[in-house]
Amino acid sequence: MSQMIFINLPVADLDRAKRFYEAIGFRNEPRFTNDKAAAMTLSETIHVMLLTHEFWATFTDRRRVDARTEAQVLLCISRDSAAAVDAITEAAGEAGGTLDPTPKQDHGFMYGRSFADPDGHIWEPMWMSAEAAAEGPAAMSEAD
Asked: Across the 144 residues of the chain, what is the mean pLDDT of every consecutive 10-residue run?
C-alpha cells in the first residue's frame, strides 16, 4: 500500500469549505463526513479532513491560529502542467478563495501559483519539468 497524507484543516463553516474544495476538484467521501468533519479526496493518496473549530479543538490543546493572518504551513501540490496550475488557481478564485497570496513563480523548468481557501489556508499548486526533476538540483539552478 502506498503512503497517503491526510491534512487536517480547521474551518469556520463546514458547508462553505466543502463547496470550496469540491469546486477545485476534491471529492467528498460521505463515509467519513458528518456535521463536525468532512473528508475530501484529491487523489488516491491525498486527502483533506475539514474540521469544525470545535472538533479541531478535541485533537490538540495548542492554540489554533487564524490562517487569514498567520501562517503555519504552505500546502504545495503538484499538477500535470502550468495550465493545470492556472486552472486550479482560477477555480479557487471563482469559488471564493484568494488568488496568489504568495508570489507567482516562473523559472522555466518550474511554475507555481497560490491560493488561499475561505479560511485562509494557503495552497501552492506547482508544475515542474520531468526532465529538470530527473537531472536534479544542479540542472534546476542552471535554468534560473
From this structure: 92 98 98 98 96 97 93 94 98 98 94 98 95 70 54
Taking only the tens place, the pLDDT of each residue in 77-86 is 999 999 999 9
Task: Return the residue matching grid coordinates 496568489.
Answer: 100
Instruction: For domain 1-61, give the CATH number.
Output: 3.10.180.10
* Cβ–Cβ < 8 Å for 92, 123: yes
| H-helix or E-strand spanning residue 115 | strand 115-116
Q: What is the largest CA-CA distance in the chain?
A: 51
Domain ranges of the chain: 1-61, 71-144
Q: Determine contact, residues 67/74, Cβ cutoff 8 Å.
A: no
pLDDT, position 134: 78
- Terminal Cα distance for the chain, rounded: 37
What is the spatial distance between Cα 135 and Cα 133, in angstroms, rounded to a whole number?
A: 5
